[in-house]
Amino acid sequence: MTTTTPRTPAQQPWEPALSVRQVLGLERVRAGQPEVVAGAHRLDRPVRWVHVAEAADVGVMLSGGEMVLTTGVLLAGDEDGQGEYIRSLDRAEAAAVVLGLGRAFPAPPEVMRSAAERCGLPMVVLHRPFPFAELTEEVQSRLLRRKFAAVSLSEAVRTELTGLITAGAPVQRLLDEVARHAGCPVVVTNLAHRVLATAGERAA
Length: 204
Prior knowledge:
By secondary structure, this protein is an alpha/beta fold.
C-alpha cells in the first residue's frame, strides 16, 4: 500500500482548480474593488467553473464548485428570494457568490449576507462592477490551462515511471521519482500497516 501526503492546492501550480482566494487576487477582479462580506473563512474553496446566474433557483443549474456571478437584478425588493438564492447555492455546493453592486443593490443586502454567513458560503461584492464576461473569460482560460498542464504532467510521469520499470529500476528509485513529482513524502506499507519503504522528506 502506497500513501502520499499531498500539498494544498495553493502549493501545486498544476492543480486544475483555482481557489476563491486566488480568483479574488486576479488583477481584473482587484480592479472591481472586491469586498468579502461573508464566509471569509472558506476562501480556499476550489473554483471549478464560473457561472453567471440571476434566477432564485440557480442551484438546479449547478453541479458544484462554481463561482456564481450576479447583479441581483431579479432579487431586488424580494427578501425571501434573496435568502432562497443563497440557500440554493449552498445546496448546490457552489464555491462562492459574487454580487456586483449597482442599481439593484447599491450596498450589500443584509439578507443575502447573513444567509451566506450562516451557510459558510463566501459572498463577495464588487464596489466597481465590470462586465462579467471579462472575468468568466479570464478564469475559464486559466482553469483550462491548468487542466491541460495537469494532464501533461500526468502523462510525463507515467512515461518516466514506465521507463524506469522497463529498465528494471529498484523500488526505491521509483518511490523517489513519485515523491519528487508529487512534492510530498511517499510511504509504502503492507496490509498490516508496517512501513516497508519511504521516499521524500518525512513529515514532522
